[in-house]
Amino acid sequence: MYKPMTEYLDFGAGPISTKAELFLLKQRRQSFIDTEGGPLFLGIPDRWLDNVTFRCIHGHVSKCILKSEEQGDLCLACYGPVLITFPEDEEQI
């Protein structure tokens, strides 16, 4: 049903800022939220919260994250910012 989110992400050949990558990831995630349907909690589909999965701006997918007071939620592999993603998302790195 779902394809890995990396198929929809195009970070380009050159370096871009972390804020720009996070914004792009949020936009792509919103397209998945819009097609999901069903009840939402704080803008996230309830089904996603039953089996929480995170994706970082560099494409890592994990069930565990590093909580930071200064930098927010971070990826354990690269310390990049993370967002909740759909449970079927897969890492394609």
Assign a percent range to the helix content. Answer: 25-40%
Major pleated sheet: 3 strands, antiparallel
Secondary-structure element series: HEEHEEEEE
Poorly predicted parts: 6-15
General shape? globular
Question: What structural class should be given to the helix and strand makeup?
Answer: alpha+beta
Oligomeric composition of the shown chains: single chain
Distance linking N and C termini: 20 Å
Output mean pLDDT.
Answer: 81
Description:
- The two termini are 20 Å apart.
- The strands form 3 sheets. The protein has a 3-stranded antiparallel sheet, with helices on one face. It has a two-stranded antiparallel sheet with strand order 1-2.
- It has helices at 18-36, 46-50; strands spanning 40-41, 44-45, 53-56, 61-62, 66-68, 72-74, 82-85.
- The model is unreliable at 6-15 (pLDDT under 50).
- Helix content is 26%, strand content 22%.
- It has 2 helices and 7 strands; from the N terminus they run H-E-E-H-E-E-E-E-E.
- The longest helix is centred in the first third of the chain and has 19 residues, at 18-36.
- The chain is globular.
- It is α+β, with helices and mostly antiparallel strands and 93 residues long.
